[in-house]
Amino acid sequence: MQCREVRDLLDSFLGQELLVETNLELMRHVEACPACRAELEARRQLRAGLQRAFTGADFLQPRAGFSTEVLSQVRSGTTHRSRWTSLWTWGALAASLVLVTAAGLFLVRHNVSAIVRDAVGDHLNCAVQFRLAERPISLTDPSLRYDPVFATLEATPSAEIATAVGPVRVIERHACVFAGRRFAHVVLRFEGQLLSLLVTADPSAAASGKVPSLSWFTDVEGQRVASFKTAGHAAFVVSAVQDKQFRAIAQALAEPVSHGLTVPGPRAANSSIRTDAGSRASTAPPAPTLSEGFELRDQPQDRHQL
Amino acid sequence: MTEEHDRGGSWSTFEAEVLPHVDRLFRLAMWFERDRTEAEDLVQETLKHALESFHRYTPGTKCRAWLISILQHLRSNRRRARSRSPIVSDPDDRLAGTVAFVPPVPVGLTDEDLLAALGQIPIQYQEVILLSDVEELTYKEIAANLSIPIGTVMSRLHRGRTLLRQELVSAQRVSSAPHASEPPRATRG
After folding, report:
1. What is d(CA A79, CA A69) in angstroms, rounded to the nearest whole number?
2. With left for phi above 0 and alpha for psi between -120 and 50, is residue A16 left, alpha or beta?
3. How many CB pairs lie under 8 A apart between chains A and B?
């Protein structure tokens, strides 16, 4: 084992993360090498120093009796309402009441598919209210593990998208799960309002030809939705921005995203890792050419409202 | 066995498992929040969530890692709610070119020097260093806690420690400069 290799492994050695054989090899080197021995000792002291400093720092200590007090509050259920809890609870209650009522009314009138409702649910619970059960994660890991198409959303759309109604800025890109459905999620902002671009596997989705058509829903739980499909995937734009602006933004987003989904990047194309049914089917569709534009197709039941 | 008895039994198990870790949880919360009320609030929320999902906890497993993962989850939600800051998948690329040199660990560091230097490096590196070196979580546990791959944990630890050492060296240079008005600080090893 060379000094450079040993230096790379010293912290893992201190953290007891190495295999027994590697430990032994490293210790043999350290015994024979004064420089690496000194380095190991320095790192051991730094680690111990951090533990001591962190445990002993006055400003980090809880007040006397905090442990028992907080536990008894948790036990009795009389926890003081935190700022966050209060805010979120009341906000969530009010929002839920409005949304449930609106959703109920809507669902009676329209047969909105589960996947559209999930996309709207993800927008509301992830982008707007931060109430997902699972923490959103970066797109990288799920793109390798589940769906290489997710990698497309790491760079598409670009950080700022010029639209006919003004610039839209990307403020977050991640992967999240709502109602058991995994989404690649790009959160955008337009004039202070949030929009979500969501892509999810949809094994039933088939490319509708060279020109993907946008479907429009004007009121799903209070949100406007535009959706289009490529083979194996469905994409949604969800927001409560005004209709005219929403349409312009959705169209501006659909073009590059559709192109990206149908022509996966090198990482997606080269991925040999298992993908789900949706992504398996994603190599077939023809890419729309930028000059072809999009066929705009309203949902019949909503056309009069647009 | 009555339901009340069951609940009492569950509570005593919960309390016995959790109580030893509350102070540590607070210190972590305090370090990240830098506000006592917020930190207490975060710990309380963590314990509340822990109690609600205690049926999913396997006795005998590492309770501290489980509690810290709940705390991190809540912290993450709060941070996102506050700032809508982008989830930076990995800032390492940005810093990769800047941390090639690993300086020696300066001698004569005080606890204050260490914490001050730790506070100077980006938060992603503070997180992994604290979880690894102070809380002694394994790489696997840290990866689960922060929802990042193990490889990212290792690279952040490597770069974070290098940045920490650079900060310590800079701090020592400043404190030992001839024009420094303060007297040399006492050392603790």
Report:
1. 10
2. left
3. 142
